[in-house]
Design goal:
The protein is mostly helical and 380 residues long. The protein has a single domain (2-374), classed as Up-down Bundle (Growth Hormone, Chain: A). It is 82% helix and 0% strand. It contains 19 helices and no strands. Helix 5 crosses helix 6 (62-80), helix 8 (118-146) runs antiparallel to helix 9 and helix 15 runs parallel beside helix 17 (286-313). It starts with a helix and ends in a 6-residue tail after the last helix. GO terms for molecular function: transmembrane transporter activity. InterPro entries: MFS, MFS_Cyanate_Porter, MFS_dom, MFS_trans_sf. Keywords: Membrane, Transmembrane, Transmembrane helix, Transport. Residues 1-377 form the Major facilitator superfamily (MFS) profile domain.
């Protein structure tokens, strides 16, 4: 229950922003590249924090560190809902720090608590993330317009799941103080991991698939809106993208956990991504647009839990998982942080979505390549 509640909080604070980007730009006065920076700040936080989280958890225990992350997340959600540029960006930074802690530690906690059910538990919490991520994308515009919350109210709503998760984790820590003290087993000697070629392949796979995800969350509504679809409908289509990915989120880790090699899984997901983004070039046709969204959803929904699965499958214990999780997410999200800004910059330069979409297809090829290389039967 605690794991799932943390998972509920790891996407909505970010995916709720995409459909609202246009409104926020008009209200605060942001260019496309600075709006892309707004979406990239959490990723920069992920990159900086991910290598530090195992060390913090080693001192505080995994449970207390997760609780700390939830509190920071809640503070960030509240601050960024103030309609001033400085609060918008500083709050977003804190949101990124809070989510980074959960991103790194959830695979470690699952590896430690459920070593024989790692694939199943990864499916459960990654599907939980996808469910709330899709919900956040879909209801952002209705909250802002129909219920007249404004973009500020539509963002601060996502503090509610954080409050619930904080209460549960406080009870978990108070109810199991002795057990919490036993969790100080996260190794901080990660030199071997940083020298591992396989670890770097997993890190690049994590980075490029995250790059695709956050670019899509940031700019897909604007791409769809460019074809004459209303912002509200574009938000729901973004939500559909994530709902379509839920079956893949649930099934991919289970299948991956039962196989020695996951190469073919990465190949299939990569082809879905390439064809899906390619279809956006023909997006003026509504059936093609829907088919593209379905394929993109399957790819995004499957690649992220596959990356999480590699963290458990390619390591032998929770200590190694912590090292690999921190290293892969630190370097991976640093790479991903460039994505939304770069796509926004390309649009500012060309005033068309053609070049950004072609760039997404190229990134999809890289995701497939490093996913297949990481899927070979070996350990770090």
């Amino acid at each position: 229950m605690g794991i799932v509640l943390v998972a509920f909080n790891l996407r909505p604070a970010i995916t709720s922003v995409g459909p609202l980007v246009g409104i926020i730009q008009e209200d605060v006065g942001l260019s496309h590249w600075s709006a892309g920076l707004l979406m990239s700040i959490p990723l920069i936080s992920f990159a900086v924090m991910s290598s530090l989280v195992p060390k913090i958890a080693h001192r505080l225990t995994n449970e207390k560190t997760l609780l700390l992350g939830l509190v920071i997340l809640l503070i960030g959600i509240c601050i960024r809902s103030i309609s001033m540029t400085v609060f918008l960006f500083s709050g977003t930074l804190l949101v990124g720090v809070g989510i980074a802690i959960g991103n790194v530690l959830l695979p470690v906690v699952v590896k430690e608590k459920f070593p024989q059910k790692f694939g199943l538990m990864t499916s459960v919490y990654s599907s939980s993330m996808g469910l709330f991520a899709s919900l956040a994308s879909g209801i952002s515009i209705p909250l802002a317009h129909d219920l007249q919350f404004g973009w500020q109210g539509a963002l601060i709503v996502w503090g509610i799941p954080a409050v619930i998760a904080i209460i549960v984790w406080v009870l978990l820590i108070k109810g199991n103080p002795a057990h919490s003290n036993k969790v100080k087993n996260v190794s901080t000697s990660a030199n071997r991991t940083w020298r591992s070629p396989l670890a770097w392949k997993i890190a690049l796979f994590m980075g490029f698939q995250s790059c695709l995800f956050y670019i899509t969350m940031s700019w897909l509504p604007e791409i769809i809106h460019n074809y004459g679809i209303s912002r509200g409908a574009a938000g729901w289509l973004l939500s559909l993208t994530q709902i379509i990915g839920l079956p893949a989120s649930f099934l991919v880790p289970i299948i991956a956990g039962r196989l020695r090699s996951q190469v073919w899984i990465a190949c299939v997901l990569g082809m879905c991504s390439i064809v899906g983004y390619g279809g956006l070039l023909l997006g003026s046709s509504y059936p093609i647009l829907i088919m593209s969204i379905v394929l993109i959803g399957l790819a995004l929904g499957g690649n992220f839990p596959l990356a999480l699965s590699y963290i458990g499958i390619r390591t032998r214990n929770a200590g190694q998982s912590a090292e690999l999780s921190g290293m892969a997410q630190s370097t991976g999200y640093l790479l991903a942080a460039v994505g939304p800004i770069f796509i926004g910059y390309l649009y500012d330069m060309s005033h068309m979505w053609t070049v950004p979409i072609i760039t997404l297809m190229i990134v999809s090829v890289l995701v497939m390549t490093f996913g297949m290389l990481s899927g070979r039967d070996q350990y770090i």
